[in-house]
Design brief:
The chain has 234 residues and is of the alpha/beta class. It has a domain of 162 residues: Rossmann fold. The chain contains 9 helices and 10 strands. The chain has a 6-stranded mixed β-sheet with strand order 6-7-8-3-9-10, with helices on both faces. A 4-stranded antiparallel β-sheet has the order 2-1-4-5, with helices on one face. The radius of gyration is 17 Å and the shape is globular.
């Protein structure tokens, strides 16, 4: 028997002011599943994540988390329901240390240490830089911190926006590994917004292609490379 979706979008439209960016998007994410949302720049991928997180208001449709409506709720309330967000921009606290950034949302010291050790298996530099001010990290290391901060909260759902952008291949593979381990060890469901096709399809179970704010194709990640590449042609 297949499990019910943990996150469901049904006919969601959203945008900025009078400009509608998403047009009736319907999508679901099951527990422990990774779904890649693929598309070129300007197609509405980041808007989709911001709408789920409550940073943008859905004009139409509904969003439910584990069967409970979260449409119109504040980002803080959605985080409390177990949703973590690793955004495309560098929204870390530059003047805090790496450790202080990671401790946000994790209160118990024993829990924090155990989770940091898990991250250290994949991101050894996190352990080396715990006392370093976050703003002094390289761009790639700041992305590691963004991902680590989302993972360490052990969310039920994680939204990840273009985490591979600008990273070297070795770092991209580390990002892939942490996504796989987060799914296998914690059962976290991941909605992964990406342009890096091979990375996304290597970790995802399913994909959805977003074009001009509409989902135009969906399928199994293991079978979708050629079809997705056709959609992403300039």
């Amino acid at each position: 028997m297949m499990s019910a979706p943990i996150l469901t979008l049904d006919g969601v439209s959203a945008g900025y002011g009078a400009a509608t960016v998403l047009h009736g998007v319907s999508l679901d994410l099951k527990p422990g599943e990774i779904v890649a949302v693929l598309g070129k720049n300007g197609m509405g991928k980041t808007t989709l994540l911001k709408t789920i997180m409550g940073f943008l208001k859905a004009a139409t449709g509904s969003i439910t988390l584990d069967g409970k409506p979260i449409t119109g709720r504040s980002p803080h309330a959605i985080v409390r329901e177990g949703v973590a967000y690793a955004p495309q921009d560098y929204t870390i606290f530059q003047d805090l240390t790496v450790e202080e950034n990671l401790r946000l949302g994790v209160l118990a010291d024993s829990v924090f240490r155990a989770r940091v050790d898990m991250l250290g298996d994949v991101f050894p530099r996190m352990l080396e830089r715990l006392k370093q001010r976050a703003g002094t990290l390289s761009g790639g290391e700041q992305k590691m911190l963004l991902m680590s901060r989302a993972v360490i909260a052990q969310p039920r759902v994680m939204l990840v926006d273009e985490i591979s952008e600008g990273l070297q291949p070795t770092m991209i593979e580390r990002m892939a590994e942490i996504l796989r381990r987060t799914r296998s060890d914690q059962g976290t469901a991941v909605l992964l917004v990406e342009q890096h096709l091979s990375f996304a399809l290597s970790v995802a179970d399913r994909y959805a292609v977003l074009k001009l704010g509409e989902i135009v194709d969906e399928g199994r990640a293991s079978e979708g490379a050629a079809r997705v590449a056709e959609h992403l042609k300039v």
